[in-house]
C-alpha cells in the first residue's frame, strides 16, 4: 500500500491488516489522529480503502498495543495517556533499552560505528542550532538504530510498541527550553559507549539518559 502525506492509503492496492495497523499507528503517533478522537470505522474504510473487517482487526491490534481504546456501544478512540502511564512505560523501557545498548556495544560493526559517529555530529549540531524538529527526529532515529544494531529481535519488537505509546510526549519534551542542550550530550555519551564497544558504559549512559527523561516528563506536568 502506498500512502499520501497524511499517511492514508491510496487506491492502487488493497492493504493487508498489518499494513493498515502500521498506517493507523503512524497516523496516531504523528498526530493525524488526536488523543480521545473517535476512530469511526466507515471513515477509516474510506480513508484507507479497506474492508470493515480489516479495519476492525487493525483497531483490535492497536487496542492491544495501548494506542486505541474501545468502549462498548461507543466504538474506538485514540487512547489518551496519563502522566503516570507515560512514566511507567519509560520505566519499563529502561530495562529493554539498556539490554539493546549493551548488545549493540557487543555486536556493532565498523560500518555501524561510522554511521553512529556521523549521527552523533548531526544530533549535536541540531541541538546547538535550535533545529528542534530535526533533533527530535534524530533522537528517534538513534533509538531505532541502537535497537537494530543490538540484533535482539524480541527486545526490539517490545520497544517499538512501547515507544509508539510515548513518542508524542517525548516529542513535546524536545521543545522545552533547555531540554535539547541537556539531552544532546546524553545521547552523545550513549553513542560514544556503543562505538567504543563498552557494554558497561552503554548500560550506565542509557540508564542515566532515561532517568533524565522521566524527570523531565514529570517536571513538565508541574
Q: Approximately what portion of the residues adopt beta-strand conformation? A: under 5%
- Give the low-pLDDT segments: 1-7
**Tally of individual helices:** 9
- Strands of the largest sheet, in order across it? 1-3-2
- Series of secondary-structure elements, N-terminal to C-terminal: HEHHEEHHHHHH
Domain tally:
2
CATH class of the largest domain: Mainly Alpha
CATH architecture of the largest domain: Up-down Bundle
Topology:
Blueprint: H1 17-29, E1 38-39, H2 41-48, H3 52-65, E2 68-71, E3 75-78, H4 83-107, H5 110-129, H6 132-150, H7 153-173, H8 179-195, H9 199-220
Outline of the structure:
By secondary structure, this protein is mainly alpha-helical. The chain folds into two domains: 17-78, Winged helix-like DNA-binding domain superfamily/Winged helix DNA-binding domain (Arc Repressor Mutant, subunit A, Orthogonal Bundle), CATH 1.10.10; 83-220, Four Helix Bundle (Hemerythrin (Met), subunit A), CATH 1.20.120.530.
